[in-house]
Amino acid sequence: MDLGKLFKTYLPLALLFLGIGMELVFQTKWINKFGVYTSPVLWMAGGLLTCFAAYYMVAFKKSPVPVSLDHYKRYNNGLLVFSVTLFGSLVIAMMLADVFTNFPVDPKSSDIIPSLEAYVRRLLNGDKVYAPIEFPGWSVNPTYFPLLWFPYTFSELLHIDYRWTAYLVFIIAIWLYNLKLVRHDIPYAEATFKALLPFLFLLAYVHYVEKVFGHAVELLPIGFYLILTLTIFNRSRLLIIVGIVLCLLSRYAFTFWLPVYLIVIWVEWGFKDVFKISLGVLAGVLLIYVFPFLLKDPTIFTKGLEYYGKTAEGQWQTQFWQAEGEKPFHLKQGLSYAIYFYDYVDGEVFDRLAVNRKVHILACGITAFLIGLFYFLYRKKGLNPTIYLIISLKLYLIIFYGFFYVPFSYLYMLPFFLTIPIIYQIPMIRKLE
User: Fold this and answer.
1) How far apart are the first and last CA of the chain?
2) pTM
3) Mapping DSSP to helix (H, G, I), strand (E, B) and coil, where does residue 378 land?
4) For a Cys staple, 34 with which of 38, 115, 172, 263, CB 3.0–4.6 Å?
5) Residue 174: inside a domain, yes or no?
6) DSSP 8-state assignment for residue 382
């Protein structure tokens, strides 16, 4: 056995799983374990290590995972993957049912789901959707874009918990990914492992931080982003448009990354294709948001931004249920560098928040610029644009949330679960190089 080849072949894979493990454990079991200053560094280091290890292994591979042409192999893969996915879906559903019971919807605990209910019920009743939502003792000014709340009409019409709709969207995305997995020419053990992995990730969150499922519905935008990664450079321009619009009108954190994606499409396919895709995205925004809502009240967007700014300011204050003088709750969860700005930047709290905001925008802009620059430097050297964009999306979101100034813990699930499309691009059981 050639130990040198063994080391060269499997060291990047070991580093990949080290990065994944670090990112997961510092959001779940060891969240804030090493303090408010060190924990964000370790969390980000894990995410970046995942991206760089994946880049090293497959970014320059035309087809890193071969496609099987053997119908018998596909049939066995399909049976195996279907069984694992169904099993995982049902087990997690049973666990989530207990979580939902333990965390009844109550605006005093979290106003996320009650706000979504208000959006949906107003729409179904023909009332103005984007009007202030009144709760006992406070009001919420609607800020969510339509695709972050409209899917819950499904739950409202069927009279089921809204959190099931979020899980359903996530599961649909996983099933779509596993349909692709069926065609991969990989060992059965690897197919089983990959099909099971998303549910193992969910299991860790349910076990250690179940409140992210009890109070929030982040699985819906995660499902949308997984669909986006499935549609990157899809042969159907319509599916590309759908993938972009789903994210743009829900959790639009990818805003700085999106122009890079469109520029890459322009370079790879030409101006005609990127123009059609851009027009399609614009049409989606007009039809889903502008015409039905924004034109009726052009102030809803600016009011939403103003309210979001006030929300940020509120989260930079010691909460009423905390001890006097304690650091703001969400800033001390060990996930964001916001705590550095709170503790080490001079000035009043609002001045420190303003600095954090500027640095956040600057970090996102620089990251997007470097992603685009790297593409242009290496595109003629065999860089796979699809895989590169998937990896770069995760990397960009790690930077986005690493410097985010309103670091609710449930938001950090999004960059982590973008590990799934990366892993599916990487052969686990590899021949010695």
Assistant:
1) 12
2) 0.96
3) helix
4) 38
5) yes
6) T
